[in-house]
């Protein structure tokens, strides 16, 4: 894995710093529960384990009971529990697994998920050159970029004392901290990328996902006015969605071959609320040929009838474009190309 490097100075305090939030490590002031000290009992009865704060935080928003109940928090995780927790907290469609259950491999897998969820490329991220861990040289070269980025993002900060311990298996307590920290960073970075929207306007938003060999588009028209708005549609067709390839050729149009009721339809949107739609593209062009790879652009137009006696809505508020790229993974499945790059 290629790495970009930012030169920086080494300060002793960097290695001695202690995070306010424990990350992938046990606090020096807390005595961990060990397998030889206590019997394995439901987690609700184990107390004073450093990782319980992370499990409690996860439990507020997610159902993580199946992963942690009855587990010794100091025992090495099982692959199925890693996969289940990732699906519950980070990515409901996750179907991967780490190369192993070692600390270096698990951190690498989580950084791949972080990169996918935030639109980053691990190989293109510049990393710091400093002795963050005294045993960094023991980390497999394949994982070093991810381990350093995880340190920079406060997702994983080692065992303390400048030790990462890359080959040791991840425990259930450590998994709780890693997943919680990853989720926090993903949420924070995605929120930072959302541009504030001015009041007194509409906004068309759209997202997509690859599911069941189709591209599924979810989109909505949001009311950013302070008052309720009523919109009129001229027929049963309330939107148009067209997809073009990188040469500009149209490969799909939602309305092709469809018939719509010819009747005026009124829709009411309260302040801050939206009207939502969904459409699916089976990845075939207009001749019925399956398209397995390439760059595409989807244009979504909300077909509101502009009434003369009402304030005119700018066309830019009623349209949005989504650019995406299809690729084929190692199992010959059609996927978002971002996933292919992170395999």
Automatic annotation (TrEMBL):
List the InterPro entries hit by this protein, alphabetically. Intracell_prot_inh_BsuPI, IPI, SLH_dom
Leader peptide range in chain numbering? 1-27
One Pfam family, short name please?
BsuPI
Q: Identify the species of origin.
A: Acetivibrio thermocellus AD2
Signal: is it a keyword of this entry?
yes
Record's keyword terms, sorted: Repeat, Signal
List the protein's name. Intracellular proteinase inhibitor BsuPI
Q: Where is the SLH domain?
A: 130-193
**Highest classification ranks of the organism:** Bacteria, Bacillati, Bacillota, Clostridia, Eubacteriales
Which top-rank group of organisms is this from? Bacteria
Parts of the chain that traverse the membrane: none
């Amino acid at each position: 894995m290629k790495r970009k490097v930012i030169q920086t100075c080494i300060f002793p305090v960097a290695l001695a710093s202690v995070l306010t939030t424990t990350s992938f490590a046990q606090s020096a002031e807390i005595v961990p529960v060990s397998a030889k000290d206590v019997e394995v009992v439901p987690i609700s009865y184990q107390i004073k384990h450093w990782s319980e704060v992370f499990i409690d935080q996860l439990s507020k928003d997610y159902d993580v009971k199946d992963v942690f109940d009855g587990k010794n928090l100091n025992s090495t995780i099982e692959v199925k529990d890693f996969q289940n927790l990732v699906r519950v907290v980070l990515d409901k469609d996750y179907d991967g697994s780490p190369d192993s259950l070692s600390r270096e491999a698990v951190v690498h897998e989580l950084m791949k998920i972080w990169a996918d969820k935030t639109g980053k490329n691990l190989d293109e991220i510049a990393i710091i050159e400093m002795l963050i861990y005294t045993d960094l040289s023991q980390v497999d070269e394949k994982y070093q970029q991810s381990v350093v980025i995880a340190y920079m993002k406060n997702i994983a900060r080692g065992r303390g004392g400048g030790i990462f311990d890359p080959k040791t298996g991840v425990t259930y307590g450590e998994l709780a901290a890693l997943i919680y920290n990853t989720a926090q960073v993903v949420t924070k970075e995605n929120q930072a990328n959302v541009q504030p929207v001015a009041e007194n306007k509409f906004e068309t938003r759209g997202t997509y996902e690859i599911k069941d060999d189709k591209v599924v588009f979810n989109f909505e028209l949001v009311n950013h006015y302070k008052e309720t708005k009523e919109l009129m549609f001229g027929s049963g067709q309330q939107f148009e969605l067209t997809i073009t390839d990188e040469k500009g050729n149209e490969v799909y149009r939602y309305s092709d071959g469809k018939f719509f009721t010819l009747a005026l339809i009124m829709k009411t949107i309260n302040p801050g609320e939206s009207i939502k739609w969904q459409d699916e593209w089976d990845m075939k062009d207009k001749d019925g040929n399956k398209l397995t790879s390439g760059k595409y652009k989807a244009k979504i137009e909300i077909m509101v009838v502009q009434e003369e006696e009402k304030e005119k809505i700018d066309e830019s508020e009623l349209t949005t474009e989504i650019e995406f790229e299809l690729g084929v993974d190692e199992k010959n499945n059609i996927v978002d190309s971002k996933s292919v790059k992170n395999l």
